[in-house]
Design goal:
The complex is a heterodimer of chains A (410) and B (312). With 410 residues, chain A is α+β, with helices and mostly antiparallel strands. Chain A is built from 13 helices and 16 strands. Helix content of chain A is 34%, strand content 26%. In chain A, strand 9 and strand 10 form a beta hairpin. In chain B, strand 10 and strand 11 form a beta hairpin. Classes of the chains: A alpha+beta (410), B alpha+beta (312).
Chain lengths: 410, 312
């Protein structure tokens, strides 16, 4: 089959874009395994990504061969370039021609015409059979852009009255700004980008973003199903990659809440595992496929459990959900370093900050997994006067790590 | 079946819609315009497909550059798009954009994709901006208006030393940080670039016009680089973690003798943030260059061993 820059299946490029963007590189000679996928030829996929994201793709040659990398500085104020990948779906010649003529026939919501009339009108421009038209109308009805009305035994169709102009007018003068902003910061922001695409001659964004992560864009479809299941209190059937075991598994979970990290961009969905009766974080980028299941009758009680333990979760780790460790550390700061105290207050999450004297403050918290706090506590290196993670072995590990850092730079 | 990966949302459809729209507006469209619009709305190699399919009749939508449609091509919003918009209405920041309930009323029968309590940012800072404040909203909207209209502002703000100042600023962007949950005004003055937290602004006055942004006052970022090394398979998934942690920076990775050498480019004003970000990885990563950055790390580690009661 000849090469085309549009594709039928997004999964083909999902892992590759992630390799390019997250890892910053992709070997020309060997495949990087991710999401449990096996080795495969990737020249067409790379060619496509060059076509979609060419302005951001570069390569260098080193001793291991030619490496490609995708480099994006998120503070430049442009829209998330990875949205483009979601706009590459393939279609048939009949699909695209029928799309424009169908919406031209149903030009406004007051026009209601029968299926036969639609077929007759379309046949003036396009050679297609009734079943193709019926299938397209059904698809557009499911998308919400066409309405079906049965009168007697005859199906009549009209256009939805959810016109972009009407919605934009009700939002006021900042509708474009809403789309510019929320397409970058809201979950499944690519949907906002889809709306922007329908605004002719839309101006540049007035926003730029710091601490902005876009990697999760390629997981938008997975997240959409998970969010729909959360909102409708449904079980979700998933297939996921397990990093720890290097394999994949399938199962059913009850998704409860989306957890997003503003400092790594990772997205997790806290789920109740009905079999183990434990809450577990489901890493969204490790999910290979999703399917909404039945409504969960126990949903509200599972949500209550999550709400009751949330104060003991530092990040996303639940430990065994039984043991809680008391973590405490003290920092010192000079009279000109009062911003350290501000940092503690600002970054404490569920912890408590106690000012000991003019130059010392203590932090306390009870958490399921104290090791999960290591990265944050290490950011105070040079001023930690005492530390206790509630477990001697964990304390020793923290101290040993600092010694290793010292040795590394000797 | 995917809900997002649909041809309805594809760049090809968008490009063809733009071409048909231009043809409707002007009576016809030239080959050059078709190529230009294809380049603007689709991808690098789309010019080899879209103009050809339109001109040879494969896509029977144009006749000698004239649209065969009777009306301007438009498409109603899909249910997915409406649900996404409805979800935004539960976000506290939406009040910055909206001044009444008209959008809420318009979408009253639409089910959101999520509610506020379905999403949690678990590690952002606790002292984010207060979006309910009427004065904050007013200043924020004035800045946005100034950017959109290319007009300058007289900005009165409280400095770090708790004194009120004012300056004439040509705003370029409103910068938002999810981690800080703060907006900042980026702009230029007659003397150079300026960054002001919106929460520190007392009042803003919109001036009748803007002033020229020249090379003397353009917002120029001072960029620096740091090179770090790590073992790709250290058993701690460090490579992936660090790539994610610094994913929003421009960076380049090279494999050398089994090590991954990662170069991160950053704005000089972010140096402390980069430094503590690297410290957070402990002994899993090592800074190789520049020596000034290595010296900063060594100094912090030495001070730590000196100050702690847990080092014998």
């Amino acid at each position: 089959m000849p090469y085309r820059e549009v594709i039928k299946n997004f999964e083909l490029v999902r892992s590759m874009i992630r390799d390019f963007y997250v890892y910053g590189f992709k070997r020309d000679t060997s495949d990087v395994r991710i999401l449990g996928k096996s080795k495969r030829s990737d020249s067409d996929e790379r060619h496509r990504i060059e076509s979609w994201l060419g302005d951001y793709l570069n390569y260098h040659v080193d001793d291991a061969g030619k490496s490609y990398f995708l480099s994006i500085d998120s503070r430049n104020g442009e829209h998330n370039p990875l949205f483009k990948a979601w706009k590459t779906s393939s279609f048939t010649d009949v699909d695209i021609v029928m799309h424009f003529f169908l919406l031209d026939i149903l030009a406004n919501s007051s026009i209601e015409i029968s299926f036969k009339e639609i077929v007759d009108e379309l046949s003036e421009y396009i050679d297609c059979d009734e079943s193709t038209v019926r299938k397209k109308l059904k698809e557009y009805e499911q998308e919400g852009i066409v309405r079906k009305n049965i009168k007697g035994k005859v199906a009549y169709y009209s256009r939805s009255n959810w016109e972009l102009d009407t919605i934009a007018d009700s939002a006021g003068e900042r509708f474009d700004d809403i789309l510019d902003f929320y397409s970058e910061v809201a979950p499944i922001g690519v949907v906002g980008s889809f709306i922007m695409d329908k605004i002719p001659d839309k101006g540049d964004s007035s926003f730029s973003f710091k601490h902005h992560y876009i990697t999760h864009t390629v997981d938008s479809d997975v997240l959409l199903t998970l969010m729909e299941c959360i909102h409708s209190k449904k079980v979700v059937k998933i297939k996921r990659y397990r990093h720890k075991f290097g394999d994949t598994n399938e199962g059913e979970l009850v998704p409860l809440r989306l957890y997003c990290s503003s400092s790594s961009g990772r997205q997790y969905v806290m789920c109740m595992n009905v079999l183990s009766k434990k809450i577990e974080p489901l890493r969204v980028d490790y999910v290979l496929s999703t399917k909404a299941g039945e409504v969960c009758s126990e949903y509200d009680s599972y949500k209550d459990i999550l709400n009751s333990v949330e104060k003991n979760i530092w990040g996303i780790s639940m430990g065994n959900m039984r043991t809680v460790n008391h973590v405490t550390f003290t920092v010192e700061y000079s009279d000109t370093e009062k911003y350290i105290l501000q940092r503690l207050y600002r970054e404490k999450r569920g912890g408590n900050v106690t000012v000991i004297d003019d130059n010392h403050a203590r932090f306390d918290i009870d958490v399921f997994d104290p090791v999960e706090m290591f990265p944050w506590v290490r950011t105070f290196i040079c001023r930690i006067t005492s530390v206790d993670f509630g477990d001697d072995r964990i304390n020793q590990r923290f101290i040993d790590d600092i010694r290793k850092m010292e040795a590394m730079y000797e | 079946m995917s809900n997002l990966f649909r041809e309805l949302y594809s760049s090809y459809y968008n490009a063809v819609a733009a071409i048909l729209r231009r043809a409707c507006e002007n009576g016809s469209i030239s080959s050059k315009e078709i190529n230009d619009l294809t380049m603007k709305y689709a991808f690098r190699e789309s010019v080899m497909e879209i103009p050809v399919a339109l001109s040879d009749g494969t896509w029977n939508l144009l006749d000698n550059g004239e649209s065969k449609l009777i009306n301007m091509p438009t498409m109603p919003l899909t249910t997915l798009q409406l649900r996404w918009l409805k979800s935004l209405l539960s976000d506290p920041r939406i009040g910055l954009f909206l001044e009444d309930d008209l959008l809420l009323n318009s979408l009253s029968n639409v089910e959101p994709l999520w509610d506020k309590e379905d999403v949690k940012i678990y590690d952002n800072f606790a002292d984010g901006d207060y979006y309910e404040d009427a004065n904050y909203r007013s200043n924020w909207r004035t800045i946005l208006e100034a950017i959109r209209e290319g007009r300058a502002l007289n900005v009165h703000f409280i400095s770090n030393k708790n004194k009120e100042h004012h300056m004439y600023v040509m705003p370029t962007r409103l910068e938002y940080s999810e981690k800080n949950d703060k907006f900042r005004l980026l702009g230029v003055t007659s003397r150079g670039n300026v960054v002001i937290n919106v929460s520190n602004i007392v009042r803003t006055e919109l001036l009748p016009e803007g002033f020229e942004i020249t090379s003397d006052n353009t917002y120029v970022r001072q960029m620096r680089e740091v090179v770090i090394s790590l073992k790709p398979d250290d058993g701690y998934n460090t490579l992936e973690r660090i790539m994610l942690n610094f994913a929003h920076y421009e960076k380049e990775a090279v494999m050398e003798n089994g090590n991954c050498l990662l170069t991160i480019k950053y704005d000089s004003s972010d140096e402390t943030e980069i430094l503590i970000g690297i410290l957070s990885f402990g002994p899993r990563v090592k800074v190789e260059a520049p020596s000034s950055f290595v010296a900063l790390l060594k100094e912090r580690i030495a001070r730590q061993i000196d100050v702690a009661d847990f080092f014998p």
